[in-house]
């Protein structure tokens, strides 16, 4: 991995992803989250302050050790018990149908095989359980898409494997989810990096 990936990148992500405009999107994504929650790509715990009061406990999954350290204060300040259960969203060490809801923010862009991670989220959710997300991905405009493909190789190298061209609706539907709530829009920042998919997908009951 190296010093950049292990030490520098998690700190950069903590700063950049902690921006106010992203917090507003996080607040939209967590709406309806409740009960026992699986969070993949927990990172430095930037979602902890916006968990709704109905959240009872969180099982966190993330490979970044430094992210975990950066999360310590947010975890200590939280009323919700948070335990780290695994390192890889593609292989989650939780039983089938053990979580009420699940959360991912700006993580499906980075996981090497997002289809596999979504299959795991689907497996651990109870029937009728919901997956809440905000992710960036493939834009609707040809010129932006052209730039996304152009910048993606360098972005992957600089940002821990982060892809710019993932199409999240298709990934979610392929994993068996029904899309209950979905919006897609440009946020703040350069368009190739800032087309957001926000919503809630359900595992059929
Ligand atoms: C851009 S950061 C987002 C962090 C956090 N979700 C947030 O919104 O601030 C991407 C996160 O995905 C994590 N990640 C990378 N590969 C992963 C994997 N295979 N399974 C779970 N998380 C992973 C990284 O360690 C990092 O914390």
From TrEMBL:
InterPro entries listed in its UniProt record: Methyltransf_11, SAM-dependent_MTases_sf, Thiol_S-MT
Organism: freshwater metagenome
Name of the featured protein: Unannotated protein
GO molecular function: S-adenosylmethionine-dependent methyltransferase activity
Segments forming domain Methyltransferase type: 38-132
Pfam families: Methyltransf_11
